Model the fold of this input.
Amino acid sequence: MKKIIFIFVLIYAIGVAQNGHNKNFDKHPVLSNQNLALQAKQDHQIRKVKKAVIVPKLDGEMDDPIWKETMWYGLDQKWLGPSYEFNDFFGRYKMAWTPEALYLLVEIKDDILFDQHNNPLKLWWDDDCVEIFIDADNSGGDHQYSNNAFAYHVALDGNVVDLDQNQKPILYNNHVATKRKTNNDVSIWEFEIIIYDDSYKEGKINDPLILGKGQKLGFAVAYNDNDGSPERENFIGSVFIPGDEKNLGWINADVFGTILLIE
Done:
């Protein structure tokens, strides 16, 4: 029996040592479900989001009162792909909230808008799209195939895609409404995002969260840029992610920033 226990401990120790040298093991690692459950998200990039007295109109314009009162944040962190020039891409965003929804204004300068897949559930990340990451309780952790958090891919045609609990892509068009207007190479996207927590079940009746002052949510936004290639060329996000592996948002909500709702 002692020999068996010794072998088990030795195998476990080797496994821990190997994980410690994994290239993804940094401040925001991709962790197993067991380890994720034992760790709490560390708040970072805390943004204060102001309440909108008048609900923004989804029209792809910047003339709503709340957009005149709020500041721009940069969409400028290269998560994937080579370096890019200003004439190829520039991005920034603003945010607001009401009790019923979170509102997001995104301005994207992109010289080529590319949508190669008519089927919204096929290789959706390789088309130009805005990706919105939401963690309703700011708890962090794994969400790749769960509703612990959502990674909404919003396509040029307005379809919204994420993976469900069965590891299949489905449309979440009832979660995110959007309107985009493009003038030359500049697109203005407005989004209304209904917030659901980890109790959300596909195919069931789900109550959205009522948002309130002082509430924290995990949040990030990114842009998949493709100028005509079989695969996306760049993935540019709003949050700095340390380490070499930065394409973590669709798996691990620990890398999301934190938004704080204020009045």
